[in-house]
């Protein structure tokens, strides 16, 4: 076993190994993209470190009343995406549905890329990240959803890395075990992230069992769109034609996407209706901010339009055959979902906690808009996923699945 | 640097504020609002509500109780709630029979730091 | 209005001794939650419950989970927003300009008869079931097991600000200087631990609006103020289920 691994590693990274050869095979456009995304990641890192050193309050627009801004929502977006990729891909190579098999390897890789992007973002959001590294271990609070979420995502990342490693080495039995464990850890971690919001009793818009459930369903939805988007792009990057199994896999993924969009639409409808019927205190104000308040454009245009209705039409209209339509639907959906996460985080804080007191200070909805630095770091997160995707395509030669 | 800034702010703004208050008091009919800031911040006396709305005559207060010069009374050391409760100053009327007692409805007259700030911003 | 001391023992006993042990334990659990149940969303009389459950005031006081069980009773109508409390707090606890541990809110009711505004002091509610301590991943904020004060161990704070999200009272802020979330701790380190009897805010208040004391001591003013059947006592955001230890009353 270990000799095998050594030989494999040598043949990959040796001076004239496979790795360099593959990396050198890209087009000019590929290297340009690689450079641009690399620079964006570096810019985000510089901005993040500066904010950390000088003091976050000088660079971020978060406040005492709205402590969580776009960096949290972007982190949520990335871990939602990662979990979704893991779950959707596991349908194939963990649970044995052959239809999903061709997308497994790239999806697992992307789930690693997106969770790393998420960690990249959160490192600049948390004020004192190095204390987290120490005290999460020596002073754990088992009632804290944040603790569980962080820990389980750590475990999840380990499993996903191991899974991808075993997939590379064609050790499918181990890959399946790791994939299954990763999926379990992912669901546990992700529902805990939902619970971070859902178990806050003072925040009416978030409070309740809805959040953890919704998070898992919306992760799956996000997973389908990201799989379609990146598989479409990958074949452009590699200048290859999709074979029939891959086309079939994407068609099935789009079908699953339709089902999940409907699920999330259903969830959203009842979330909104339950926030309006009877005008529940705190929740009603937040829901109305989405329906016809300052977040109405975000909600109707981005969440409902671009996030769900438009992709639903395109996915259904493509009949699983028109790849361009599916790509467009997936891209639109990802933008919509990003705004969904933003609204989820920001609207949940928009109603002041002491609003019901009727005091002058808390009469109005609180506002928040991202600062330049927060914007740079957010873009850096996306650039990181793109960068890792591009590297991955060459490094792992299009994530081809060997037959087994 | 910080100290310098605050010293400049105090030097420039304080006379402005005091001047502003006096001007506003003179300009508005029946003396306008008087904002007492001593012994604590802030108490708003409204000439409007006492003269125009309640219909009291000037000499009800300005013949012995309060001098015509606004805020002069703040210099007295016994300008306190205890004195009011004994029937001095505002307490001459605010005794529970003529008007609500000075031991009740605190925030009717006390407009607080916020009230003082608001009055300053209006000038 | 002067607080009246009601002799709980002198009131008619509804026969606790006849309640089966199991039922009684059940009642006692309610008793433990007394500080929150107290207001329970509506105006609530401690005495009525206490009388049903406890044989004597001393036993009742014993049911407060902490000793001393620090609490603050705010006589809302006495607040005149002089903000001496805010200043004293900032000075005592080195609270920076951009933050606050306690604050005075203003409620305007233009169509009210007579007084048309009131001031409402707010601070950390030192909840019996604090949400902030539950959500903290590193136990950087915790409930002191002897006096019930919600405290910060600044060296463990990672700055995730989940506690700020969890607090239904907006009582927490991030203190850049300390590199940790900061909050009211009833001046524990700055005054109580040094032998002072009052918090800086209660000490500075010229109107005795903030009555600070030990709820587990039946002779304390705090205890006597709250345990009156005829006095309306309430808490902020009772529906958040945090069982706060800051009580509000008037008169």
**Total count of strands of chain B:** 3
Q: What is the CATH topology assignment of chain B?
A: Cytochrome C3
What count of structural domains of chain B? 1
Q: SSE order of chain B in H/E notation?
A: HEEHHHHEH
Summarize the largest interface: chains and residue counts.
Answer: A-C, 42 and 42 residues
CATH top-level class of chain A: Mainly Alpha
Spans of at least 5 consecutive residues with low confidence of chain B: 14-27
Mean pLDDT of chain A: 92
Low-confidence segments of chain A, given as residue ranges, are none
Question: What would you call the shape of chain A?
Answer: globular
Q: What does this protein look like?
A:
The complex is a heterotrimer of chains A (404), B (123) and C (251). Chain A is mostly helical. Chain A has one domain (27-354, 361-396): Formate dehydrogenase/DMSO reductase fold (Up-down Bundle), CATH 1.20.1630.10. Helices cover 74% and strands 0% of the residues of chain A. Chain A is built from 14 helices and no strands. Chain A has helices at residues 2-13, 18-23, 28-54, 70-93, 104-125, 129-138, 145-168, 172-198, 210-237, 244-276, 283-292, 296-318, 323-350, 372-395. The two termini of chain A are 19 Å apart. The model of chain A has no long low-confidence stretch (mean pLDDT 92). With 123 residues, chain B is mainly alpha-helical. Chain B has a single domain (2-122), classed as Alpha-Beta Complex (Cytochrome C3). In chain B, 47% of the residues lie in helices and 9% in strands. Chain B is globular, with a radius of gyration of 16 Å. Mean pLDDT of chain B is 80; it is low at 14-27. Chain C has 9 helices and 10 strands. Chain C is globular, with a radius of gyration of 19 Å. Chain C has 251 residues and is α+β, with helices and mostly antiparallel strands. In chain C, the strands form 4 sheets. A 4-stranded mixed β-sheet of chain C has the order 8-1-10-9. A two-stranded antiparallel ribbon of chain C has the order 2-3. Chains in contact: A-C, B-C. Chain B binds chain C through residues 40-41, 100, 105-108, 110-115, and chain C through 77-84, 104, 106, 114-119, 206-207.
């Amino acid at each position: 076993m270990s000799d095998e691994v050594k030989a494999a590693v040598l043949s990959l990274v040796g001076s004239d190994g496979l790795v360099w050869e593959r990396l050198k095979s890209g087009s000019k456009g590929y290297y340009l993209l690689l450079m641009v995304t690399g620079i964006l990641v570096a810019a985000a890192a510089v901005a993040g470190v500066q904010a950390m050193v000088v003091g976050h309050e000088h660079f971020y627009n978060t406040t005492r009343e709205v402590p969580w801004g776009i960096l949290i929502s972007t982190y949520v977006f990335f871990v939602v995406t990662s979990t979704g990729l893991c779950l959707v891909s596991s349908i194939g190579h963990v649970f044995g549905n052959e239809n999903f098999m061709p997308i497994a390897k790239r999806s697992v890789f992307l789930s690693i890329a997106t969770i790393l992007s998420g960690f990249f973002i959160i490192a600049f959001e948390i004020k004192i990240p190095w204390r987290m590294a120490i005290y999460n271990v020596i002073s754990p609070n088992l009632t804290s959803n944040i603790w569980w979420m962080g820990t389980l995502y750590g475990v999840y990342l380990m499993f996903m890395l191991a899974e991808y490693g075993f997939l590379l080495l064609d050790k499918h039995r181990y890959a399946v075990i790791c994939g299954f464990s990763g999926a379990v850890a992912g669901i546990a971690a992700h529902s805990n992230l939902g619970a971070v919001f859902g178990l806050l009793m003072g925040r009416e818009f978030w409070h309740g069992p809805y959040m953890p459930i919704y998070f898992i369903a919306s992760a799956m939805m996000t997973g389908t769109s990201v799989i379609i988007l990146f598989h479409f792009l990958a074949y452009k990057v590699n200048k290859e034609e999709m074979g029939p199994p891959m086309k079939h896999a994407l068609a099935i993924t789009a079908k699953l996407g339709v089902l999940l969009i409907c699920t999330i639409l259903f969830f959203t409808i009842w979330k909104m209706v339950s926030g309006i019927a009877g005008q529940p205190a705190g929740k009603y104000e937040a829901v109305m901010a989405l329906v016809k308040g300052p977040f109405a454009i975000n909600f109707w245009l981005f969440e409902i339009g671009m996030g769900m209705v438009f992709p639903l039409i395109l996915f259904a209209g493509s009949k699983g055959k028109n790849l361009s339509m599916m790509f467009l639907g997936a891209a639109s959906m990802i933008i919509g979902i990003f705004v969904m996460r933003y609204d989820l985080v920001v609207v949940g804080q928009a109603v002041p906690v002491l609003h019901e007191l009727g005091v002058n200070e808390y009469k109005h909805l609180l506002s928040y808009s991202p600062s330049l630095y927060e914007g740079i770091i957010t873009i850096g997160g996306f650039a990181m996923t793109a960068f890792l995707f591009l590297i991955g395509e060459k490094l792992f030669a299009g994530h081809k699945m060997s037959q087994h | 640097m910080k100290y310098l800034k605050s010293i400049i702010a105090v030097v420039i703004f304080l006379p402005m504020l005091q001047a502003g208050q006096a001007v506003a008091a003179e300009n508005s009919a029946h003396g306008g609002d008087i904002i007492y800031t001593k012994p604590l911040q802030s108490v708003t006396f409204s000439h409007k509500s006492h003269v125009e709305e309640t219909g009291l005559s000037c000499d009800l207060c300005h013949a012995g109780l309060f001098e015509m010069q606004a805020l002069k009374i703040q210099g007295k050391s016994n300008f306190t709630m205890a004195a009011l409760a004994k029937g001095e100053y505002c307490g001459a009327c605010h005794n529970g029979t003529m008007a609500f007692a000075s031991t009740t409805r605190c925030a009717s007259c006390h407009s607080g730091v916020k009230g003082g700030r608001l009055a300053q911003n209006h000038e | 209005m002067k607080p009246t001391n009601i002799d709980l023992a002198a009131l008619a006993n509804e026969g606790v001794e006849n309640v089966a042990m199991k039922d009684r334990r059940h009642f006692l659990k309610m008793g433990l939650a007394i500080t929150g149940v107290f207001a329970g969303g509506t105006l609530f009389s401690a005495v009525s419950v206490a009388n049903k459950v406890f044989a004597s005031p001393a036993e009742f006081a014993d049911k407060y989970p902490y000793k001393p069980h620090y609490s603050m009773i705010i006589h809302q109508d006495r607040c005149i927003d002089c903000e001496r409390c805010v200043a004293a707090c900032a000075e005592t606890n080195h609270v920076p300009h951009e933050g606050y541990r306690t604050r005075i809110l203003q409620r305007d009711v233009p169509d009210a008869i007579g007084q048309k505004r009131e001031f409402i002091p707010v601070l950390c509610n030192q909840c019996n079931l604090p949400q902030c301590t539950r959500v903290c991943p590193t136990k950087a904020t915790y409930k002191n097991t002897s006096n019930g004060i919600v405290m910060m161990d600044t060296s463990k704070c990672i700055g995730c600000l989940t506690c700020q999200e969890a607090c239904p009272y907006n009582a927490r802020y991030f203190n850049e200087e300390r590199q940790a979330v900061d909050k009211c701790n009833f001046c524990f380190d700055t005054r109580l631990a040094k032998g002072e009897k009052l918090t800086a805010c209660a000490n500075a208040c010229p109107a005795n609006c903030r009555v600070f004391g030990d709820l587990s001591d039946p002779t304390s003013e705090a205890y006597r103020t709250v345990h009156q059947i005829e006095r309306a006592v309430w808490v902020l955001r009772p529906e958040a289920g945090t069982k706060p230890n800051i009580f509000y009353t008037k008169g």
